[in-house]
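DEPOSITED CHAIN:
***
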Amino acid sequence: MKTNLITLFLLFITLHSIGQINFESGYFIDNNNKRVECLIKNSDWKNNPTEFEYKLTTNDETQKGTLITAKEFGIKGFSRFVKADTKIDISPSDIDNLSRDRNPVWSQERIFLKVLVEGKATLYYYENKGLIRFFYSVSDTAINQLIYKEYLTEDNQVAENFKFREQLWSYVRCANASMSSVENIRFNRSELERYFKKFNGTADNSSLVYEKQKKRDSFHLRITPGLNFSSVSVINVDYPDSKTDLGNKINFRIGIEAELILPFNKNKWGLMVEPSYQSFNSSGQQGTYEKVEIKYQSIEFPVGLRHYFFLNENARLFLDATVIPGYSLVFNSKINNLDIGTQISYAFGGGIGYKKWSAEMRYYTNRDLAKDYFQIKNDYTRMALIVGFRIF
């Protein structure tokens, strides 16, 4: 079974380039302000990129654009990134590391900023390893950061610096607006985008909003019936020659899988949990020793990560890895007269999906069914063939 799993993984790695992120119609502007039409690898970056891959034509070799060689690049109808030499606040934002200074901690950086709303006033976005910042420019003015910072007061209370509201009032003020129009704006993407679109509209200037292409559904629920190809052997460590092979069994399994698609990298990653039922019943003779009988029924709760390789709009390949916690619901399960208790184990799989259907082969590492009995050791491994049907 292990050999089959390795073969399966190698197959998917070979097919990686087929289902990977596509090169899409785009452009970049070099340091001489020359606009170059090209194909850009659309990675749907979660963190703002420092470089991008492109081809001049479909059959050309892949080249790289960087912060040194490009002033701007974009993927038509999807995203635009602009290089900026600007100050950025690098103050930590997690609650355990807040500083006592209400003022930003500035660092001069060269970065690619993502354009969110473009017009007379332009809103930019930056994210890198949890650091999220918004920037703005008006007409041909320089790009500056919108300032918002959480900090600790002398009595260890969390306070907020809302300087960005003053910046909006001073530099991005809607016509005939009152102070209240900025006093209650929260520092998040949706509210800032709404404000900049409103400003560009009242400024008699068109507002171009960069929206992501249509997303696949962000949540999936599947029924996952299938077959387990299981094997169990048991040994009493006090009698090394007492190992009993209880044989290979084919048993029905069924689960229900909930999957959350992560909102970056073009929906290629998913978190999943799959409560699933399986069983194994068998018996055998320990040589001249006693008869060994196992009855095992349980509901496990695997939690895992899945990666997709999209072939087209309807077809996809995928790989996944799951952790199966030691805790499971066990029903009247015993090895002879000993109650079964389980330990943590793992599973690795891969498969293919088409529209609402999927098929997967999954290998499970050894799961100890006698963890509470040091004198009893067992090997319980399985390979599963799982068919999935997406309910929604």
Summary: The mean pLDDT is 86. The chain has two domains: 18-209, 219-390. The CA atoms of residues 87 and 137 lie 13 Å apart. The chain has five helices and 26 strands.
